[in-house]
Structure formats: C-alpha cells, structure tokens
Inverse folding.
C-alpha cells in the first residue's frame, strides 16, 4: 500500500454494446411475458456475472436444444448466433423459439448465404470452437465455409476454384490480426470478394481503439471480462501490442494480484462488450480502498447504436 495517488485512465467506450444490451433484454422481457422458467441455449453472452444474474431471475441455461423439455416455456438462442439446424429443430418440436442473435452477426450470415448462392466458397476468419463461428459455418451446407485462424492457414488452403472465393470474419476479432490474414488472402487469391462493410463490429473496433489510445500511457491495464469472451481477450492482446507491459483480463476484483499493481502510478481500465459496468466500478473501488485514486475518462468515440427486440418478442409484448 502507498499514499501516492493512483492515476486511472478509464477507456470510453467500454462495456456493453448494443447487441449485448439487446440479448439481455430479450431474456428479461421473455421472463416478463412468459414467466419463469425460460431456456437459453448456451450463455446468452460470455460473462459469468450476467449469466448468474439471469439464472437468479428464472433463466435456465442449456448446452443443446435436446436439453429443453417439451412445453410452453420459450427457448432463446444466444447473441452469438446458431446453425440453421437449431431453429429448424425447434420448429419441428413446436417450441417457442426467440432468436437473440446480434444483428451484426446476422449480417455475416446473410452475406455468407449470398456468396454461396453465387457459387463462392466462403473463407471465414475466426476461432475454431467459438459459438459465433459454429453458427456461421452452420448457415451453409458442409464444406461451403472454410475456417482459417492464422496467416499460416491461408498458405495451406486448398480450394476447388480460386476464382470463386469470398471472405468473412468473426465479429469480435482483433482488427490488426484480421488485417494480416485478409492481406494474405488477397495476395494469394486476387479475385477473392470481401464484405461490403467490415464484419468486425463497431463495438469491437471502438473498444480496441480506446485501448490503443491509453495503453502506451499506463504502467498496467485491466480488461474487465470473462476468459471465454473473444472480444475481451482481443482487448488484452491489443493492450500488449500497444506497449502496455502488464495487461490482465479479470472478471472480478477478487482476481486482482496486488503484487502486480501496488507499485504502479498509472492504471488503464476497460471492459469487454459483454461486461457490465458494475464490475468496472467494483475494481475501481478495490483500488480506492488501498490508495488515493484520480480517475480520468479517455473518450475516443461516442456510441449511440440501438437494436430493437426480435419481432416475435415485440409482438408478444
């Protein structure tokens, strides 16, 4: 502990994006309309605090549709999107299905479908096993989407027709990381077609730009978020690449290793798109209990995006 004030640079924007706000609203509105329980396939967003809060209100989280019992309780698909087979199976069972897929993820799904209709193989830049990637791959027949994770994957690609290719990306990737892979694709396949507008969502880009602005100015930086949150992990990576020697991803204040932070003079704090502001405040309060703090907000952009509830829930409301 020390009496020297700690200067905290608070990144803005940070925390919840419009897609996450919408997804959480979907669960809460469904609970109001249908009553508890409502079922949610996979985590509605990648944040344990949010998931536990919704569980306390009556949401039941399941891994697969088979875990949802027959009856009148609705089942909600997470913000990450699902393969086409999932809503088809829900329809077959006459379940009340509510799709909370982020509209920016839906955009990628639609573009992939258009490319497929035009005879192109879709090269998807993303992380294997991530729910969003599984949802996008599952929009098209097997083999129609090929996943690449690295520049090395691009070099090893084997495709049937090099002149009938398109690329798309997972929405929560690092802008810098994706840029290198896209460059490799365009160099190897000059005829490849890209999206009309960047697939990486505005919130991911804005939060990464805010971190890039403060990372060189601080001794350490904390990203508030869950370890299974792709966009939170990318914020930590961006901080490290931008010159911050100590960049840590933490869910709660209880995870702080004080040996890493007690002797610093400046601290950066941001939050992933699925992390609530209450957890940012919790971490700031933890530092304030150990030493005086001075908090400055560094704003690099202002967000005013809003996504309405899914039609099936708007009609029910």
């Amino acid at each position: 502990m020390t009496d020297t004030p700690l200067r905290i640079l608070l990144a803005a924007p940070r925390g919840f994006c419009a897609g996450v706000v919408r997804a959480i609203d979907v669960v809460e509105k469904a609970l109001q309309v249908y009553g508890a329980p409502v079922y949610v396939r996979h985590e509605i967003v990648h944040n344990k605090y949010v998931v536990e809060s919704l569980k306390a209100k009556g949401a039941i989280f399941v891994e697969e549709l088979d875990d949802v019992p027959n009856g009148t309780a609705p089942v909600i698909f997470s913000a990450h999107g699902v393969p086409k087979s999932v809503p088809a199976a829900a329809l077959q069972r006459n379940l009340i299905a509510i799709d909370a897929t982020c509209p920016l993820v839906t955009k990628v799904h639609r573009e992939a479908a258009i490319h497929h209709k035009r005879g192109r193989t879709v090269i998807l830049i993303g992380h294997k096993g991530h729910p969003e990637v599984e949802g996008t791959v599952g929009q098209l027949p097997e083999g129609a989407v090929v996943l690449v994770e690295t520049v090395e994957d691009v070099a090893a690609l084997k495709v049937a027709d090099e002149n009938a290719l398109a690329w798309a990306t997972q929405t929560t990737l690092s802008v810098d990381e994706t840029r290198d892979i896209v460059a490799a694709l365009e160099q190897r396949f000059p005829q490849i077609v890209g999206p009309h507008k960047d697939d990486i969502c505005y919130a991911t880009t804005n939060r990464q730009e805010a971190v890039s602005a403060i990372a060189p100015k601080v001794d350490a930086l904390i990203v508030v978020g869950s370890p299974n949150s792709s966009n939170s992990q990318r914020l930590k990576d961006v901080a490290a690449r931008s010159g911050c020697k100590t960049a840590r991803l933490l869910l709660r204040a209880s995870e702080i290793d004080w040996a890493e932070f007690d002797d610093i003079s400046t601290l950066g704090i941001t939050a992933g798109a699925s992390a609530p502001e209450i957890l940012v405040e919790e971490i700031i309060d933890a530092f304030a209990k150990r030493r005086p703090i001075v908090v400055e907000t560094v704003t690099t952009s202002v967000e005013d995006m809003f996504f309405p509830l899914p039609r099936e829930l708007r009609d029910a409301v």
Observations:
- The chain has three domains: 6-16+202-299, 18-102, 104-188.
- The first helix runs from residue 18 to 34.
- DSSP finds twelve helices and twelve strands in the chain.
- The CA atoms of residues 160 and 243 lie 42 Å apart.
